[in-house]
Amino acid sequence: MPRALVTGGAGFIGSHVADLYLEHGYDVTVLDNFASGRRENVPSRAALAELDLTSADAARVVRDGRFDVVSHLGAQIDVRKSVADPMFDAHINIVGTLNLLEGIRVSNGNPVLYRRGAVRKALRLLAEGRGVGILIDQHMTSPDAIYVDFFGRPAATTSTLAALAMRTGAPIVPLFAFPLPNGRYRMIYEHPIEPPAQDSPDALREFTQRCTDVLEMHVRRHPELWLWMHRRWRDAPGPAFDRSLPVC
Fold this sequence. Notes:
Blueprint: E1 3-7, H1 12-23, E2 27-32, E3 47-50, H2 56-65, E4 69-72, H3 79-84, H4 86-105, H5 118-127, E5 145-150, E6 153-158, H6 160-168, E7 175-179, E8 185-189, H7 203-221
Parallel strand pairs: 1-2, 1-4, 2-3
Antiparallel strand pairs: 5-6, 7-8
Helix pairs in contact: 2-4, 6-7
């Protein structure tokens, strides 16, 4: 049976959403602290987690619930309160949402490595024989960024991926997820990327370029699946580039 989580499920809209899931055969859990919702609104067939959205217990419910779908409707919506106490408003609506997202991200057993101390943690995971996923299509502003060609233009790219592989000998296996109907994904594992020669004068950049080339290949095949609104090429050095290529 598919599972659904509805935050704010004791509210008017949330309770109707929970009812709809139940009608379609879902096992429903309502997460609400009744700050504004009513207990009698919670469907009798739904499980209830009476928790604050910002709490560690709420994140644990999300993490361990293995939900197929999450409808996030729990929020502070009183405009007067938001003006009178914007910090409280931000705590509920921003911190609460981030807490929910964090629970979702780790629900399949994959921890999130935040930037501070990430390299040390990644080295420990690799030493344990575990895999580490790193996104390389994001603009980098830190000193460890290196410029490689991406669609014919220099793009500031993380050097961490190549540095970890060269230090540990761990293979780099490009992974792509392509959406399918009904919320499923087709996972594509490319062949491991061949590392540069040991005596290469610019091995780090060469290795990062090879990784970026594989990414570019898949973006060219499926451009509609890449987040084009991201300013990937900002702060690029040098004035020369091909104007026929994508500009961001």
